[in-house]
Amino acid sequence: MRKCTVIVTDNVEDYFVDLMRFVASKYTMDSAIRYAKRIRMEIEELSYLADVLPKSKYELPKLYHPEAKTFVIGNKKLTVIFHIDGDYVIVDKILPSALITY
């Protein structure tokens, strides 16, 4: 099993900032930081899981990359859209899982 390097795009980094602001507005900043760390740890699991996950059967992820794969995180609330480029796993987008239906 090979281990890849996970790269998060700027678009996804912006999503993290928005997500942390939302969680902080509902709870506390400490809660937002803990939540963001947990989500990042789940994304890092792609370093060894990316190869075994199948290509997405849905069309929405393929809009971000023709070889897109998906990975559900955050108690099935978020879906990570990513692709593999050599020894790198590139995270293209994170969306609410409810949007990945077509």
In short:
With 102 residues, the chain is α+β, with helices and mostly antiparallel strands.
Describe the structure.
The chain is α+β, with helices and mostly antiparallel strands and 102 residues long. Helices cover 40% and strands 25% of the residues. It is built from 4 helices and 4 strands. The chain has helices at residues 10-26, 29-44, 46-49, 59-62, and strands spanning 5-8, 69-73, 78-85, 88-96. The chain has a 4-stranded mixed β-sheet.
Essential attributes:
102 residues; alpha+beta; 4 strands
Give a topology summary.
Elements: E1 5-8, H1 10-26, H2 29-44, H3 46-49, H4 59-62, E2 69-73, E3 78-85, E4 88-96
Parallel strand pairs: 1-4
Antiparallel strand pairs: 2-3, 3-4
Within the largest sheet, what's the order of strands? 1-4-3-2
Order of helices and strands: EHHHHEEE
Could you give a short account of the major beta sheet? 4 strands, mixed
Helical fraction:
40-55%
Separate helix tally: 4
**What percentage of the residues does DSSP assign to strands (E)?**
25-35%
Radius of gyration: 14 Å
SSE class: alpha+beta
Cα-to-Cα separation, first versus last residue = 31 Å
Q: So what's the overall shape?
A: globular
Q: Give the uncertain stretches in residue-range form.
A: none
For the residues shown, what is the average pLDDT?
92
Count of extended strands: 4
